[in-house]
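Lab notebook, bench 4. The sequencing result for the construct came back, and we need a structural model before the next group meeting so we can plan mutations. Quick request posted to the team channel:

Model the 3D structure of this chain.
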Amino acid sequence: MKIKILYEDSNIFAIDKPSGISVHPDGRTKEKTITDWVLKNYPRMKNVGEPQFFEDKGKKIEIKRPGVVHRLDRDTSGVLILAKNQKTYEFLKNLFQNREIKKTYHAIVSGNIKDERGVINKPIGRSPTDFRKYSANRGARGEMREAITRYKVLHRFSVGLNRLTYLEVYPKTGRTHQIRVHMKAIDHPVVCDSLYNEKSVCPKGLKRMALHAKSIEFTDQKGKVLKIESPLPKEFEKMLK
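Done. Here's the predicted structure in token form:
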């Protein structure tokens, strides 16, 4: 597994996570994950963070998540920050919980969005029809958690018969699948999203979900403002030419 390091100091490092790789195991599949790479290359981090537990056939299974403070979906690429020690883990966890970390994503979505800017303020719950999915529409099950996503249109274009919009997206909250769910809720789902845009055909030249974590900005423990950026994926660049 080849992973590019975008930034590193004594307390953290940030990687450019590829699309198609999960951040940590889910207790069901045995495919390699980012945490396997972390344990191999940073073995001292094995006890940093908090483990996750799963039930499987009545047995409780512990999943190690060394240094993982936040996560990206399996098919999302871009900036992922990991903590090298427990003190930094707690510091970053607090920043995320208090919404003191600025996250910027780039996405290509289906259809042409009319407004140049927008805010999607729709609580997110569980999908009533698919246990894998979440929903911001009527009928969602369980606890409805606050979710706010801002976006700005960067470009409108077409690929063949597909009308598309290229967005810069700023999630204020950090719900599971938040950007994907919110774009689906306004009828502009992320391109090549097999879960929330399953009926659409991927435009020629794109073989992955069109969602990329472009940058993360925050103030570190020493009071230094850090902005860590990931280059735009080559698939995006080719499509936007």
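The radius of gyration is 18 Å.
Will bring this to the meeting.
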